[in-house]
Amino acid sequence: MAKPSSKRSRSAPRRVEPLLLLACCLPAHGLAAGLSVPALGPAPTAEADLPLYLEVELNQQATGLLLPFVSRDGRLFARADTLAKLDFELPDAPPGQLIALDQLPGVQVRYDAALQRVAITAPLSQLDLETTVIAPDRNEVLPATNSPGLLLNYDLYANHGQRSSNVTAYAELRAFGGHSGVFSTTAVTRAFRSDASEQWQGDSVRLDSSWEWSFPESMFSLSLGDTTSGNLGWTRAVRVGGIRIGRDFGLQPYRVTTPLPAFLGEVAVPSALELYVNGVKQYSGEVPVGPFQLISQPGINGAGNAQLVITDAFGAVRTLSFPFYASQNLLADGLSDWSLTAGLIREDYGLRSFSYDNRPVTSGEFRYGVADAFTIEAHGEAGGGLRNGGVGAVWSLGQAGIVSASYAGSDLDDQDGGLTALAYSWNNSRFNLSLSTQRTHDDYRDIASGYGQAPARASDRALVGWNSEQLGSFGASYLRLKYPESEASRYASAYWNRNFGRNLALNLSINQNLDDNDDRSLYLGISVNLGDRRALNTSLQRNAGRDSANVDISQSVPTVGGLSWRLRASHADGGGTSGLAEAGWLGEHGRVNGGVAGSSGDWYGYAGANGGLVLMSGDLFASRSVNDAFAVVSTGDIAGVPVKLENRLIGTTNDNGLLLVTPLNAWQRNRLAIDPMDLPANMRLGQVEMFAVPSDRAGTEVEFDVQPVRAAVVVLHDAAGTPLVAGSSAALRGKPASMTFVGYDGEVYLDALDSHNTLQVSTAGGTCRVSFDYPASTAPIPRIGPLTCTPEGSP
């Protein structure tokens, strides 16, 4: 039986599910679980020994080792310490003892005297090989940078009708630079009147202000100001003015935080390995002799089927299939996630700028991956006389799915209470099932209860779905909610949707209040793709005995920018007819839109605009709204240089040689490039491709070395008027780095010219020189000459 792991490994493997053991490419005879050194009889005498130094091949794989052996009577012997270098397990052999290779169980030896090479084939049970670990890089940390700057995002909206008018402006201001973090604040300013005869009224409300620092090496973030507490699946978050610290996995986006299916096996000869998950290739590569551990790539969730295809050095192919289950709700073994929040509860959010309760509160969450299949959770909060704490866990049941459970208890003014929650989920590419229940007992309270609605006394949910390529997607759900001092509400729903080709989709759903037979809604939607970004959407709906119909036709805006529009008409029983007509334009510097809408003679017009302003690198840029990171590309004061983002043209530099590039992905590599083929010939380039790694919500500078040069083709002749011999070396006086060679017809290309230049040329007949001025020319690379190169020492 093949060993599941080796005593030594390149990366010690964890216990993983499923476990795959492979044994291939070796004859079955001669295998043994252990090795005892055979009795060899009398030690060979010095006269009978022939010392050899041989190149060694082990199990069809070159080792790169030249090791000593002894030949005696046509047999090969090796010292125990020599065999240990080949990873043979010889626990009972003294290092200097000679061992006959052909007496080791299952070992075959082929000695090539002409090439001084020995090929050894040994069963894996006799070898102590390192484990080859094949896994995605789960710990890559990229050095992110940002540069000093300011950003203003704005969103303007205004409408005017017969009954009311209003103007609203939303703004977000960010300041950033270096290690000072990111300061941001948001606010809304409103002006309105409810009747045309009334005076305008207005107010301004600050929404959120915070200063945040990020430390990607430790995945740690710190926020001062307005923030929200962390939360688990069985807790509730609150808005707080204060401090929050904790883990932020977003700072290492390439890191995989959830357990990945892993497969452990062995190959006796070098083999090619391919992994397919649900029919999609996940990995292809080579594995050396010995045990290996293959960890699948991220992005797998739910039940699936994997196929491992092994092709050995002899061309034999073996395919193994096995099921697995992966979940995003688990943390990888040994990984932790936590946060701690302390401050004052934010009240009247969106209505008042500085409304905070005067009682401090604290809240903390913690998650830890005890094993790949088991994650524990804990939560605690306190404030205003309340104490609340709880624990939970998430288990993987293997192929049976994921189950989670939690319990929390609270104490407020000597009134105790508790919360229990239980959930189960399972899904694959066609089916999904989710069940959850949550109960509160006695006088359970959390911090959110003191500033809003108390948690539900009972919450039960069930969801089941099925997907068929021929019939479409089906689903059904059940919901039961009961809040304190109210009756329970129960609802059931079912849906079906199906795509007919690429241009037609149907959506049908029904919702039923199980406590009121008259409370029922039916919905039928039809979507038609008309091509050229145009779509037609129609719907019929019946709700509480009333029917309504809607027709909507629109053209979406392209990613690069352009025109969008929308027309909608609706009719409802008892509500009359309504309509909307809207047009918008997405440009390089923002988006504008406007339209008219209304019903039953009450019509109004509206308009809006949004975008951003960035002050950075000594320039002011107008752009679309900037929600994530960005970069300012510099090409050294050279205007009109095309810049590409991920091989897609994103814009050209302005008159100052700058271009704002947005959006970029924070903490990730963003490939920026300039195409030298699009530049004039008299430009000197450094790197033409660079990776920008900005921090979140901030900007970084990317500088391409683009310099204009004075270049020319100089034609050189000797005193007789004959072109100088090709291959002669030439250099500008005082500029040794300009050294080059004369080409055919005496032509030499120079790109470091000044207004006045002296060129020195070394030929087989001696050294000559020529002086010339750079001509005033519209050509990027003018042609100068022919010029006579005068020999050194000539008058």
UniProtKB/TrEMBL annotation:
Signal peptide bounds: 1-32
Check the record and name the InterPro entries matching this protein.
Answer: Fimb_usher, FimD_plug_dom, PapC-like_C, PapC-like_C_sf
Keywords attached to this entry: Signal
Protein's recorded name: Fimbria/pilus outer membrane usher protein
Source organism, top-level taxon: Bacteria
Q: Which residues form the PapC-like C-terminal domain?
A: 715-775
